[in-house]
């Protein structure tokens, strides 16, 4: 499977090249084309092996690849980079978030329907939570999921949404899409948001980064009969599960997440962004 990689400013691009081209972790799935980086960045990634060519625009990839990965740090770039490929029938994985706002997210999904192909998107942390699923049965019906992680309100890549997307996807992965607007409390050092998701609460505990570092990602699942709490350990291969699910989607034609699961994080992030402007 020949992939094009769009958006090279993200360190996830380095991980993708390492996994797919250097280590060949997914067999014949590899990145053959790069798009959207400086000459220096393109040369750096190409030097890791397997890359055949670079292009200036996503449209220039059409007819030369089997699928694409969009990895720009700025979610506002995801629609213009993914949409033309999807409309042309190229499956796309959009690294978190799917888009910078729900209108763009819905347009991306519409483009996939127009092109008759699938699109997916996820935070790598979503699949770390998925790995806990086998241990949840003993808890009984879930009543709350509390996800904790860092936030950087002044990030130039979407403010609170840049790191916040990880926490949002961690909280929502085990629950149905939230209903209505979340309740949000904002303090100088953090943000707490609570959304109703079916018969449970999705709780986002966002802690402001400081000069000494950041709070680790953690999740606590509470059921009617027990509690499971875990700090998520992100090893060097933490981005690989998302890439694997994308490759499986392209090969099988079965999406790992339905449209509502893709839209729900973007909508919740919009609510957070309205409530938590940059300081």
Automatic annotation (TrEMBL):
It comes from the Bacteria. The keyword Oxidoreductase applies. Residues 2-120 form the Gfo/Idh/MocA-like oxidoreductase N-terminal domain. One of its GO terms (molecular function) is nucleotide binding. The keyword Oxidoreductase applies. InterPro entries: Gfo/Idh/MocA-like_OxRdtase_N (IPR000683), Gfo/Idh/MocA_oxidrdct_glycsds (IPR050463), NAD(P)-bd_dom_sf (IPR036291). Keywords: Oxidoreductase. Pfam families: GFO_IDH_MocA. This is Putative dehydrogenase. It comes from Nonomuraea endophytica. The lineage of its organism: Bacteria, Bacillati, Actinomycetota, Actinomycetes, Streptosporangiales.
């Amino acid at each position: 499977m020949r992939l094009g990689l769009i958006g090279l400013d993200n360190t996830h691009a380095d991980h993708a090249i390492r996994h797919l081209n250097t280590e060949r972790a997914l067999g014949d799935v590899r990145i053959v084309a790069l798009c959207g980086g400086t000459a220096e960045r393109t040369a750096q990634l190409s030097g890791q092996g397997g890359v055949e060519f670079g292009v200036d625009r996503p449209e220039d990839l059409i007819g030369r690849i089997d699928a694409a990965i969009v990895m720009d740090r700025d979610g506002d770039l995801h629609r213009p980079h993914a949409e033309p490929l999807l409309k042309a029938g190229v499956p796309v994985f959009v690294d978190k978030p799917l888009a910078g706002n729900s209108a763009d997210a819905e347009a991306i999904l519409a483009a996939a329907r127009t092109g008759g192909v699938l699109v997916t998107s996820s935070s790598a942390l979503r699949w770390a939570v998925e790995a806990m699923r086998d241990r949840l049965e003993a808890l009984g019906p879930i009543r709350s999921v509390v996800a904790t992680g860092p936030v950087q309100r002044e990030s130039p890549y979407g403010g609170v949404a840049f790191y916040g997307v990880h926490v949002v996807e961690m909280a929502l992965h085990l629950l149905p899409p939230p209903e209505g607007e979340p309740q949000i409390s904002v303090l100088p050092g953090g943000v707490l948001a609570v959304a109703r998701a079916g018969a449970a609460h999705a709780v986002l505990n966002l802690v402001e980064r400081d000069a000494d570092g950041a709070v680790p990602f953690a999740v606590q699942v509470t059921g009617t009969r027990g509690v499971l709490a875990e700090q998520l350990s992100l090893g060097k291969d933490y981005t690989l599960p998302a890439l694997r699910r994308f490759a499986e989607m392209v090969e099988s034609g079965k999406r790992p997440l339905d449209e509502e699961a893709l839209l729900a994080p973007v909508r919740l992030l919009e609510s957070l962004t309205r409530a938590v402007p940059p300081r």
